[in-house]
Amino acid sequence: MLLYKNSFEQTYYDILSVKEDANYEEIRGCYRSAILNSHPDKLQKTTETSNTDPESGDRFLKIQKAWETLSDPRSRAVYDSGLRASRQDTATAEDLSLEDMTIEDDGKVLELFYQCRCGDYFSVDSSELGEMGYAVFRDGSKISLQTPDSLPASFILPCGSCSLKVRLLINADTAVVVSDNL
């Protein structure tokens, strides 16, 4: 059993629910949908009480900021550059591959985890990977991950208890065979 569910920092792409290689029209469509669904006036009308959720206002402002940044080609290029740099410059305890991870299948999602020095775990599950754009496939005893653009990728996993982080490296053709007792 895993002790911790990872929380990944949301990017502007996550906030608008678009892929990082989305074009202007895709970003615009997702922005319009998100802004309509989170507008404070609309949310206040749908609730029976006049108490509004402060998180809904924050979400609305995050959507606005994401749109302001991603709709302008120059600001998007600067943001993308900073995003790539932050992913590469994060200090990690070690780099892991899919083969280093232990895989647990509960029937609904696949949980990938690796034990930290402190005794807790670095972990990610197939639904979180799906939200980040990675496709997880299971074919019998073989598990494979497909990156969104079929290029090698990586992301950072924090430990559930301490400050250590690891980088999970994913090759475009990554697959691992797991035992049949899952």
Polypeptide structure, described:
The model is unreliable at 1-7 (pLDDT under 50). The protein has 6 helices and 9 strands. A hairpin with a 4-residue loop joins strand 2 and strand 3 (110-115). It is α+β, with helices and mostly antiparallel strands and 182 residues long. The strands form 3 sheets. It has a 3-stranded mixed β-sheet, with no helix packed on it. Strands 2-3-4 form a 3-stranded antiparallel β-sheet. The protein has helices at 12-16, 24-38, 40-46, 54-71, 73-89, 126-131; strands spanning 94-97, 102-105, 110-115, 121-125, 135-139, 142-146, 153-158, 165-170, 175-177. Helix 2 runs antiparallel to helix 4 (54-71) and helix 4 (54-71) packs across helix 5.
| Spatial order of the strands forming the largest sheet | 1-8-7
| Strand-residue proportion | 15-25%
Q: What does the largest sheet look like?
A: 3 strands, mixed
Class per helix and strand makeup: alpha+beta
The Rg value, from CA coordinates, equals 19 Å
Average pLDDT rating = 78
H/E topology pattern: HHHHHEEEEHEEEEE
Low-confidence residue ranges? 1-7
- The residue fraction in helices comes out at 25-40%
What is the number of helical segments per DSSP (H or I, 4+ residues)? 6
Quantity of strands, as a count: 9
The gross shape turns out to be: globular
First-residue to last-residue Cα separation: 13 Å
